[in-house]
Amino acid sequence: MVALAGPLAGGVEHVAADSLDELHLRVYESGEWWDVTISPLMVAGITEEQRAAALQSFASAIPNAVPGDDGGASAAFVLSGPRWANGSATWHYNPSGKPPELTGDSAALDRAAGAWKQLGGTSFAFVRGADTSAGTEACGSTRDGQNTVGWAPLPDATLAVTCSWNRSGNPRPEFVEFDMRIDPEWDWTTGDHPIMDLQSVTTHEFGHALGLSHTQETLCPGMVMCAVYDQGAVVRVPASDDISAMALLYRESTRGPYRVIVSGATRNK
Question: Is the confidence at residue 23, as pLDDT, over 90?
């Protein structure tokens, strides 16, 4: 995953990226420790310098963050650990700041969230709430108790990012909030002739919001949860690996480790 090094105060100073491009941080807030997972989707062709700078920018945006435990997992896909306790997560859309020429964005987001509905024999579903004026500060200084999808500038070569919070140390970690930021500077499209396909990118980010990490590079491109997006690609349908991951996370009979690895039926115990 991502190796971090930094002080116990003042934020994470150095980020060493790997192929999965996720940050796992810990934050002490309101008298308790929180685990924060920052999951960006970057454009194909990104340089190592751009990758490192982007990850550093995300890490430094969380005040007083310290390195978290990424589990050191390697698999066809990796579950980030926590899940939504009640089998659903309500999200809200803030269209403020979107590209003025973009149309069909609200419907594209609905389809992206809906792509994950009740997969793998689960009852999990994202629920669309009313549009909101709330921000996406789970990717920054604070939480507001609401899951918001919105628009905001992101580091170079980054299309979108999802920032998920869960309480640290619970027997079964449970998400309490996610926010998703989409960078309005890209040439977003929602129709049949995609450039940067909003539905594909946000289907990926909703996958992070429910608990999935990036697909291993050996299976990419062409998978929803690949760590980079190829311009013009339409990748809107979760693959069999994603469906198996959902089954492990959200079937009521699921028990076991905080992190589950699926690769030839291998489990961490």
Answer: no
205 by Cβ neighbours in 10 Å (0-12 / 13-18 / 19+) ranks as: buried
Spatial contact of 150 and 193, defined as CB atoms under 8 Å apart: no
Do 244 and 120 form a contact (C-beta atoms < 8 A)?
yes
Q: How confident is the model at residue 3 (pLDDT cuts 50, 70, 90)?
A: very low
Residue with tokens 């990424």, as numbered in its chain: 70
212: β partners? 79
Q: Quickly list DSSP for 89-128.
A: EEEEE--TTS-TT--SHHHHHHHHHHTTTTGGG---EEEE
Three-class SS state of 196 = strand
Which domains are present in the chain? 1-269 (3.40.390.10)
d(CA 136, CA 140): 8
Single pTM value for the model: 0.84
Spacing of C-alpha 204 from chain mean position: 7
Which two structure tokens, joined as six digits, stand for 236?
Answer: 């809107």
Residue 14: pLDDT above 80? no
Q: Distances from the Cα of 184 to the Cαs of 14, 198, 206, in angstroms? A: 27, 11, 18
Within 10 Å of residue 141's Cβ, how many Cβ atoms?
12
Whether 76 has a pLDDT exceeding 80, the answer reads no
Both tokens of residue 158? 């980054």
Contact criterion met (CB below 8 Å) for 91 and 127: yes
3-state secondary structure of 177: strand
CB 16 within 8 A of CB 3: yes
